[in-house]
């Protein structure tokens, strides 16, 4: 049973999360402050952390950065802060995902499952990813759609591979640009949009209504299966 640590000072939110997560087979640990949350994270070693940004003793972004000094498992931010700046800052600081309050419990559970799938992919180190009719062979640099080979440029394949390895996670424009082209391209979001458009034309049934590469407006992209 996966243990999920909730770090949130709102009692109603903790209660809602406790009921929802317990009902779906998760074990719960709870902390009200950043200090207690960091201590619990170290002692319990949870499989995933749900972190609020508005904690009484420390800003959540600072808590996130502190945790990321040693904690490698998924962290989902759950916060009333909903500006692009806050979301991008959290994702760039190491959050795997970001939901704003009020939230739908079904969506939260889906995001949690996506985080655990990503962990499983990393543990298995499986070089072949299958998403419905789309197959990506990382070792062979081969992409199949309906068992037919799709010809991609090296850059298109690298972009698709990065998104697929992080399936379910929002990757910011800055993160993708840095990973694929280096620090000098971090502000070239238009450059990235061109490659995403090209890739969608090759793997999406309808590029105008993508099923795999989902745009998170003003933030980045999420790969969905």
Strand content: 15-25%
- Binned, the helix content reads 40-55%
CATH fold title of the largest domain: Rossmann fold
Give the integer mean of the pLDDT values.
Answer: 90
CATH superfamily label of the largest domain:
Response regulator
The low-confidence runs, each spanning 5 or more residues with pLDDT under 50, are: none
Structural class: alpha/beta
Cα-to-Cα separation, first versus last residue:
24 Å
User: If strands are numbered along the chain, what order do they take across the biggest sheet?
Assistant: 2-1-3-4-5
Number of helices: 8
Q: Encode the helix/strand succession as letters.
A: EHEHEHEHEHEEEEHEHHEE
Number of strands: 12
Q: Identify the CATH architecture of the largest domain.
A: 3-Layer(aba) Sandwich
Shape: globular
Report the radius of gyration as a whole number of Å.
Answer: 18 Å
The largest sheet, given as strand count, sense and whether it forms a barrel, is:
5 strands, parallel
The CATH class of the largest domain, by name, is Alpha Beta
* Count of the domains: 2
Describe the structure.
- This protein is α/β, with parallel strands linked by helices.
- It folds into two domains: 3-119, Response regulator (Rossmann fold), CATH 3.40.50.2300; 126-223, Orthogonal Bundle (Arc Repressor Mutant, subunit A), CATH 1.10.10.10.
- Helix content is 43%, strand content 21%.
- The chain is built from eight helices and twelve strands.
- A five-stranded parallel sheet has the order 2-1-3-4-5, with helices on both faces. Strands 6-7-8-9 form a four-stranded antiparallel sheet, covered by helices on one side.
- It starts with a strand and ends with a strand.
């Amino acid at each position: 049973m996966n243990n999920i640590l909730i770090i949130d000072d709102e009692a109603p939110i903790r209660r809602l999360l406790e009921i929802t997560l317990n009902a779906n087979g998760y074990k719960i640990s709870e902390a009200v402050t950043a200090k207690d949350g960091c201590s619990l994270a170290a002692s319990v070693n949870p499989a995933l952390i749900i972190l609020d940004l508005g904690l009484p003793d420390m800003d959540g972004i600072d808590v996130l950065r502190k945790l990321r000094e040693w904690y490698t498992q998924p962290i989902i931010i759950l916060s009333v802060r909903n500006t692009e700046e806050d979301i991008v800052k959290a994702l760039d600081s190491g959050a795997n995902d970001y939901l704003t309050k009020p939230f739908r419990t079904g969506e939260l559970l889906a995001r949690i499952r996506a985080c655990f799938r990503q962990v499983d992919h990393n543990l298995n180190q499986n070089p072949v990813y299958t998403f419905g009719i789309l197959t990506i062979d990382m070792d062979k640099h081969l992409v199949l759609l309906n068992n037919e080979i799709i010809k991609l440029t090296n850059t298109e394949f690298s972009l698709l591979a990065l998104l697929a390895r992080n399936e379910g996670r929002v990757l910011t424009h800055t993160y993708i640009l840095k990973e694929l082209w280096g620090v000098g391209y971090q502000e070239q979001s238009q450059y990235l949009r061109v490659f995403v458009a090209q890739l969608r034309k090759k793997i999406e049934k309808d590029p105008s209504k993508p099923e795999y590469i989902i745009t998170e407006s003003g933030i980045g992209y999420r790969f969905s299966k």
